[in-house]
């Protein structure tokens, strides 16, 4: 246009700048429409036609307009947000007394995936099912959208005004002026500081900390032993012998991700390193940890104290210390062997105990002291900050409340009306407080009972910090703007304390004062802060403190044990426990966790009374295909109807029940799932105990019930083509121990199955993607299954559909029980042993090179890629299910119904409302009804990794592309990589020979003797390799 | 046609003349529908409509309406498919193979059994369509049609695709063969009718003029079609059995399947023909055309094929044991002792033991016994397919995935739908088409000279 210098004019009037023209030209229509509005007589008919013509045209144009689905482009594009390019932010997952350093993946500003932060020296990139699932809770419709007063919405100004004025009034009262802040363990030092400011403003305020699953026994035990109430750090990576008495350290105890990471290091073996730790477990319920133990002895909860005392005495005898009296544990299998080994591996051993009885913990400390484990496997210089709840303080608080000494209660992100041992007493006493406030994110059991609710942000929306252990800080930064009108809880406290500072500034200032000064590497605070934000982690190191064990405490503790535990009792005992998926139940409204198959029972959507097979026989209950009965569980004077689950490994004379269920106000998904076991928590030595030693009885009701299990067959039927395992002694002699080599008879000789084939085979010249799964490392924790669900938009189908055996999981953990001495006939093989060995086998699409699914699809919807993947083309699939039938691993999943936008599947939160849909991974299709799906080997991750490398003109580097399951795994059991890259970790692990020119995938030579294909005899030639399970046990003495 | 050997017993009894044949058969077509027919037809239509509810629900909501699951991807759907295809075998066998072998006793029954074949194949064809997750696409994506998807083509390696070809070929040939046989009889009806009926039957008879040349061509085409149809009798069920035989699933992966399936198909087909014939015979009073002799001969075929099937079952077991493959051994152990033992033993009882009763002449010439046993055989054959499909799938290689299949009312409803479809078609056929091939039967009616001698 610039070159064109001509001026165009409409008429002579414009050229001459006629005043009349200029005036008219300003309006949209320079001339009047030639219609007589007054209805003049001359042009009526013409005007009518004109108007009609315009009317019809306008009406039809309006009708033509397509419905507009608003895709709003950025007017000003945010600097960091590029469509389709993910951003990652380091942050911290916080839930009650747990915290994990994480990395949040966001797409177009939406957090869609949470993974462990590799920079953390604690969790080292590991995560858990709860961490992986937490991103869905962000988009939970049940979250409060703003502050509430008396169950009705209000605004923050009103709430602040009223709360502050009432606090002032209460603080000024002469009588009953107590203000209590009740919370779970608060890991954030800055939040604690804010609460401190609040307490400074209202001096009658006190901060009460409790944890649903209390570790008070440990802190109190340490106070009695060493004079310091703390939980030390444990280092399982240095152990040769670990003995756990009821501590589920791989599943739920204190810091399971950290411990899994550490423990897995002691279970990694190869040809050059044929040593591993030995793990003894003494417990009542079969826990995740117990199922991974080399030796597991089922014990009664009442045996815990005497057993620990007996172990103490056994060690004391060797250490030359005085014996203690602590009751009689009776004859406990493997106890002597465990004690001998502990002593032999002094300084490289560890004894942990899940009991919450301080007396027991005192003895445990004594044992570890005598073994010289302090300073090696136990670190008291950097105590952890998880689970600092004080059970005594909580009981006292309820007493104070009941006696009218407390007028105001603020529940800081906790739900004690549901998950505390004092729930019922608290519910009754709460009315006596004149001001009750909760900061719950939803109308949970506690929030529904208070006057004001000041909802907190989700952790992904907030600035905060957490001190996981002394000197180990983890920063939280928001990865999305707050979705609702919520407010960060510490900010609320600051407001109520009369401060107007924004929490972000407050946090930064606190870091400037407290932590920036503690280091000297970085001189500018901004740089320090930016690095902390980038890494998510700041490690300052703990303080040096010397502790001396007080042996006098041991004999006091032993006396207490002698009084409290009676082994001779013949009554039934109840052992409460946590499931590794559901935990304490705070995430009960998260359908991913509800539908996560429990690693041990393989049940979903329920809790249940676990009973031994012997007891089931006594009660006349036989469990098949999840069909069971409801029983009446009587504990003291409380009774409850609960389904039973026959659990191999359950100690005879005990029953187990998981807490975290029976929520009434968690939301649509979590309400009414299972029964609430918190009321059964009792007190022992002032601490909450999960064990009920007396007054438990079970009576049948005859009512049928179905538990939705994803696996109903318990044993692997002695099939060596599925599970290959050996003992360490055998492995030491032969790296191929436990391997099963199928051979097929052909023309006078036995040949490998791969020698007989009609397949011409594939050659992969670029990449050859493959995966190894080390069954020796896999603990069965199922973090990978939830990670996969989040990554790959896998729908939740609900209990009914799980009962119909239609769960959609792409990766599942097969859990097999086996007896040490396999039974001879097939019927006996079907029964799991009373105290079985357990094997976990993650199972997903095996990406077969000779894939049986590919040949049978009539429309070629499932095909092979040039890089070794078995691919599914959803939009080509017509759903004959022939591929699924012909899959020997049964890993293909069919969309039986439409799981998205379907009110019948409204528990599938991520696909059935606009808010929930924000969690979907835009790189993965949401599958339509009637098509088949399965593990894609995270093909979207492979593609984006390749793309990133291509843009930089290089090949993808090993370790750059990770599978969702692989990165979630806290025990590094899964390794993914390129077999064509001789330097890749997977090539090294498999010791695969370098690909020769023209060599087919099926001809590649793997030299690692532990590596095997499941169902090798079929010669489907998978790209997933399993490593044999090696148990560190002596074969003969396996029967407990 | 040839002269019947006088030592043989007459195939048509009651001293029927050629004119009697025309009268007896045309009477059904020309007369008003009987109350019995109206009732039977009404029930069939109602069954069809009830079944249709299940079909609509399945297509509308998804395959989840059925009892299938992650482990058992096929159950009643493919069981019913194979069962109906099997039933469809008898018609072609009777009309084509027996024509080639010059077995004249087939003449009285071939029309109805061919009709049964056509309808059974139509019923069978419902399942491959309905069992798809997305039938609205699958119905034509499974065909090698030129398309706009670029080079996207069907997978010729897939036995399901072979099924498409096998069934459609079989259906076309059977239909043509059946219709060709109907042409002279339509002409007979046309010649006796007037008004609109004359027009309709006239059109259906394709201008048949009864000339010697026409008859000659008719005979030739019949023979050619019989020659074409004969291999199909063997091929269709062979290919259907490939769905299973080419897979890797223990209990499916078996080389014995083709002959075993073909024998089973003939077995069930004859049983179904007997069931229908005995009813038609009674309702239309055709005792002189479909005689005890016919029934006995068909029962003998049932003994033979039933025994073949029995031997196949035993061979499978022997091979499972002899192979030394644990998964294979377990699959067969599981059939006998597993949770579906009742299905297995129903199959064994119905298919292997019950037909052996036909060794007794008294039983194989008893109408009541034949009727009951023919139904038992078809129940047994349904269970055979159920056993093969469900008990093999529900416990295959990895015990973690073992599951049970429980049918829903929609499984039953879709099966019911095909029954409704089958009987609606069959009763329409029985009313409006000549149920016995008049033209052919006339060729075996005894001549008047023999009549006096008899």
TrEMBL record, chain A:
Residues 769-799, 836-867, 868-897 form the 4Fe-4S ferredoxin-type domain. Signal peptide: none annotated. InterPro entries: 4Fe4S_Fe-S-bd, TAT_signal, TAT_var_transloc_signal_dom. PROSITE patterns: 4FE4S_FER_2, TAT. This is Molybdopterin oxidoreductase. It comes from Roseivirga spongicola.
TrEMBL record, chain B:
The keyword Cell membrane applies. It is a multi-pass membrane protein. Keywords: Cell membrane, Membrane, Transmembrane, Transmembrane helix. Signal peptide: none annotated. PANTHER family: POLYSULPHIDE REDUCTASE NRFD, PTHR43044. The chain crosses the membrane at residues 36-60, 80-101, 113-133, 160-182, 221-240, 260-279, 300-322, 342-360, 367-393, 413-433. InterPro entries: NrfD-like. It is found in: Cell membrane. This is Hydrogenase. Belongs to the NrfD family. Pfam families: NrfD. It comes from Roseivirga spongicola. One of its GO terms (cellular component) is plasma membrane. It comes from the Bacteria.
